[in-house]
Specification:
Number of helices of chain B: 16
Number of strands of chain A: 22
Largest sheet of chain A: 6 strands, mixed
Structural class of chain B: mainly alpha
CATH topology of the domain at 57-308 in chain B: ABC transporter involved in vitamin B12 uptake, BtuC
CATH architecture of the largest domain in chain A: 3-Layer(aba) Sandwich
CATH architecture of the domain at 57-308 in chain B: Orthogonal Bundle
Strand content of chain B: under 5%
CATH topology of the largest domain in chain A: Rossmann fold
Mean pLDDT of chain B: 92
Strand content of chain A: 15-25%
CATH class of the largest domain in chain A: Alpha Beta
Number of helices of chain A: 17
Radius of gyration of chain A: 25 Å
Helix content of chain B: over 70%
Oligomer: heterodimer
Shape of chain A: globular
Mean pLDDT of chain A: 86
Number of strands of chain B: 0
Low-confidence stretches of chain A: 1-9, 519-534
Distance between the termini of chain A: 32 Å
Structural class of chain A: alpha/beta
Low-confidence stretches of chain B: none
């Protein structure tokens, strides 16, 4: 394995030798070797479930490796918990921030790193330090704002500040752009470049090739728990990395005939939602979906797609104020909820974005999950009791038709892989033969084989003359499946495109909230951006 | 990917916990200069060695089955009902009112009516905490604890000011009429032609408790409501996705839980005391928590755990009677059993899981 050398520094900032970690029968990391040179940005890329997060959790002391050594600055260290990771100079910015929402920025920064029993001296010191860091690295955040009042991008800055305040030399960021708008992501990248130029070492975990190509110096690829390659970013290409990630050529194309749209199934007019905190999440959505077509909604996560799905599925978030009109086959649907059961009866099926929290009860067996949401269905009940033999038969049939492995209805949902869990949900919802299928992130954390299978089922449903609303943050998936593409940004539909005529950069502009035709130099897409030296 | 075999989960873990609790109890008994072997002998003989002992053990067991089932039903909905004590006390009030209001001609008519009274009062006492939890987010652990105190105070008032017969100095209701007295197990044995458990309080309620185990099992694992309760208990967001109303399930599960706790009153109030006295529940509501924990929130497990705690209660009483071991020590033993089987469950479970994982790896 080629190990890129750093910029003149003799010993690498981090070196991993033969790290292995198993969870029961699952080998999450297998004999990982990695060398990260000082003062570089090192990308680690891999599909969901490739073992990236496990590896980083080992580095941060959440897990102990079964075998292998960690060397920081050439010296072996034992990282037993996050405290020892911090002492070794490692800072971590998690995908889900670990901030106290009702503390100020300053209080969050010193949390766990107070100088003594009294807060005042720590706060004063932190205030000075924050000011210095802010001017040095474009990390401006008002130290006295409550974290809950900050945007996601600013909260992330607080996480970075926390790490720097603890004198981290090595900064690990886990999927940092997943929740950011493109403009926020660009700002983050400027910060990271600044940190690198000051000699910090940065490890960037992501599954987005574009980010790797744009910002990293070196990149390592993980696949199924193994480190399959480490290369200089300048010497590789996105297609080569993609191939390394999946182990074969990516072919995300779905065989389908042109759509033959029929009568409108879903009509949404002026749909607005203000959440319990008073934030307007949907600012007037207009949508039409006809029978026999797939409408894909593209957008960065967190721009209102989840709220739209929840409203249509009959359970808007509690405390939210709603206005507008939703019609299903001409009938007005009541917006007050929650009553997901009534929507199912009306002919709407829903594959939720988070199958482990909503779509399945993880401790329930597969057959119990096949009745989930349809527990009132007459064929699943017999008198006062549920008809367990009938549900088991139904589950066995669905699992066979959807090639769920292992095909054992008695197994608890949590014992299936992500792809097979999703197949159970998709089978349950599609086989109800709904008039409208709502499907959110259908292939998140799902292996390639299952992706193709699920995509085929969605197209089959469309061909049977049903309407499909597809929400996905994977642009490739939207491009491959949708008959029309609507792009959501900040609670609005920014525009609609046909997949044939839409280009990635055109959609990217819409996803970033830029109206087509307007040119805003500061917000241009990174591809077009001139390199800014630090 | 089962962590360990089922038998180890439901049989081995509680047995080891129990052995640990008894082991430490033995050390405590040694420390005060008594013989643990002698103490165990007294307990076993006193609780299980004669039909007389069994008559008391089964009486206590009946109480604990009801309160254990109450904790279990709420637990499956993700709710921790600590209010079994208060709900059982109010159930007693329900029984007393039903039995005193109507001149019942026969116990077979009085029993169903008393059960309804007990269940309704227990359920209503659980309704307010349930409603507060479902609608206002007031934590049910806090509210049910508070309702235990309110129930005790209310009962005190009712007994002293309303139900006390004129001229009586005792804060207790009048004695229930003779026809409402439930047959004791000893009477039933005599009807079958043999002597069993003379002068013991175990009565026909024991069979109602066993039947309740079966019905609760059907409810939780075979009915649609049970399915919805379990789904809600595992994941509230999942339940909402599936069209299950959190408010409805919270209220219904707590109503059932309160009703079960209240039903205990047919044993202690109607079956044994035959009048309503102060503090009739005697902590059985709290023991129900330990029983449900130890019984793995399964009716069959609860039956066994209730039997164990029945044995501890009766055996402990015998210990105080026949040895110089002070009564307080019996409470220590009971507390150790609760501590090890309930609170410290993971202390035994996790090493066991690791052991089984290691064994499997070696085997594979």
């Amino acid at each position: 394995m080629s190990v890129p050398s750093g910029t003149g520094s003799p010993s690498p900032a981090i070196e991993l030798r033969g790290i292995s970690k198993a969870f029961g029968p699952v080998q999450a990391n297998r004999d990982i070797h990695l060398s990260v040179a000082r003062g570089t940005i090192h990308g680690i890329i891999g599909e969901n479930g490739a073992g990236k997060s496990t590896l980083m959790s080992i580095l941060y002391g959440f897990y102990r490796p079964d075998s292998g050594d960690i060397l920081i600055g050439g010296k072996p260290v034992a990282i037993t918990d996050s405290q020892s990771a911090i002492r070794a100079g490692i800072g971590m910015v998690f995908q889900h921030f670990k901030l106290v929402q009702n503390f100020t920025v300053l209080e969050n920064v010193i949390l766990g790193a107070e100088d003594g029993g009294l807060l005042r001296p720590s706060l004063a010191r932190a205030r000075g330090e924050l000011k210095r860091l802010a001017s040095e690295y474009e990390l401006q955040v008002d130290p006295d704002t409550l974290v809950e009042d900050l945007s996601v991008g600013h909260q992330q800055r607080v996480e970075i500040l926390k790490a720097l305040y603890r004198q981290a030399d090595i900064l690990i960021l886990d999927e940092p752009t997943g929740v950011l708008t493109p403009a926020e992501a660009d700002h983050l990248f400027r910060i990271l470049r600044g940190l690198r130029d000051e000699g910090k070492t940065i490890i960037l975990i992501t599954h987005k090739l574009r980010e790797i190509m744009e910002i990293t110096d070196n990149v390592s690829v993980m696949r199924r728990g193994e480190m399959v390659a480490s290369v200089r970013t300048a010497e590789t290409s996105p297609s080569q990395l993609a191939e390394l990630m999946v182990g074969r050529k990516v072919l995300l194309r779905v065989e389908k005939t042109p759509a033959r749209p029929g009568a409108p199934v879903l009509e949404v007019r002026g749909l607005k939602l203000t959440d319990a905190a008073g934030v307007e999440r949907l600012r007037g959505i207009d949508l039409d979906i006809r029978a026999g077509e797939i409408l894909g909604i593209a957008g960065v996560a967190g721009n209102g797609q989840s709220q739209l799905l929840e409203i249509l599925a009959g359970y808007p978030e509690p405390g939210a104020k709603l206005s507008g009109e939703v019609r299903l086959k001409g009938e007005v649907l009541p917006l007050s909820g929650p009553d997901a059961g009534a929507r199912r009866e009306a002919g709407i099926a829903h594959v939720p974005e988070d199958r482990q929290v909503e779509g399945l009860i993880m401790d329930f067996s597969a057959w119990e999950n096949v009745a989930f949401g349809y527990q009132d269905a007459p064929e699943f009940n017999r008198g006062l009791l549920m008809d367990q033999p009938a549900i088991r038969r139904d589950a066995a049939g669905k699992m066979e038709r959807y090639d769920v492995r292992p095909p054992n209805p008695e197994l608890a949902a949590r014992n299936f892989s992500g792809g097979n869990q999703q197949k159970i949900v998709v089978a349950r919802e599609i086989e109800r033969n709904p008039d409208l299928l709502l499907i959110g992130q259908p292939t998140r954390g799902v292996d390639i084989g299952a992706i193709e299978f699920i995509h085929r089922r969605i197209v089959e449903l469309r061909d049977a003359g049903k309407a499909v609303l597809l929400v996905s943050v994977e642009l490739d998936e939207i491009m491959a499946l949708a008959d029309r593409i609507a792009v959501m940004f900040d609670g609005r539909i920014m525009g609609e495109r046909l997949p044939g005529e839409a280009t990635t950069s055109d959609l990217g502009c819409l996803m970033a909230g830029i109206e087509p035709g307007t040119v805003m130099p500061g917000d241009m897409l990174p591809e077009d951006q001139p390199e800014r030296a630090g | 990917m089962e962590r360990m075999p089922k038998w180890a989960d439901v049989v081995l873990t509680p047995l080891i916990s129990l052995a640990l609790a008894f082991g430490i109890s033995a050390l405590v008994i040694l420390a005060i200069g008594e013989s643990p072997a002698e103490a165990l002998k007294v307990m076993v003989e006193g609780a299980l060695g004669s039909s007389y002992g069994w008559g008391f053990t089964l009486y206590y067991t009946t109480n604990f089955i009801f309160t254990g089932l109450a904790v279990m039903v709420a637990y499956h909905a993700g709710l921790f009902n600590i209010g079994g004590e208060g709900q059982a006390a109010m159930g007693g009030l329900g029984v007393a009112l039903v039995l005193l209001a109507v001149p019942w001609p026969h116990w077979a008519l009085a029993l169903p009516a008393a059960m309804v009274g007990a269940a309704v009062f227990g359920a209503l006492w659980a309704l307010i905490p349930a409603w507060l939890q479902a609608k206002r987010g007031s934590h049910i652990v806090i509210t049910t604890i508070m309702f235990n105190f309110i129930a005790a105070a209310l009962l005190n008032y009712v007994l002293v000011n309303l139900l006390r017969p004129v001229g009586s100095m005792d804060p207790a209701s009048a004695r229930f009429a003779n026809p409402t007295h439930l047959p004791k197990l000893t009477d039933m044995a005599r009807a079958l032609g043999f002597e069993w458990g003379k002068n013991t309080p175990a009565n026909v309620s024991f069979f109602v408790a066993i039947l309740s185990c079966l019905l609760v099992w059907l409810l939780i694992w075979r009915s649609r409501l049970g399915y919805e309760i379990r789904a809600f208990g595992k994941s509230e967001r999942g339940a909402i996705y599936a069209g299950i109303s959190p408010v409805r399930i919270t209220v219904i599960a707590m109503l059932i839980s309160g009703a079960l706790a209240g039903m205990m009153a047919i044993n202690n109030v109607m079956g044994e005391a035959q009048r309503l006295v102060l503090n009739a529940v005697e902590g059985a509501g709290f023991i129900g928590i330990a029983v449900a924990l130890m019984g793995r929130n399964h009716p069959f497990g609860i039956l066994l755990a209730a039997l164990l705690f029945g044995f501890l209660y009766q055996g402990g009483g015998e210990l105080a009677l026949w040895t110089t071991i002070p009564r307080e020590l019996i409470v220590v033993i009971q507390a150790l059993v609760i501590l090890f089987t309930g609170a410290l469950d993971n202390m035994v479970r996790m090493p066991l899981e690791r052991l089984f994982a290691a064994l499997r790896r070696k085997g594979a």
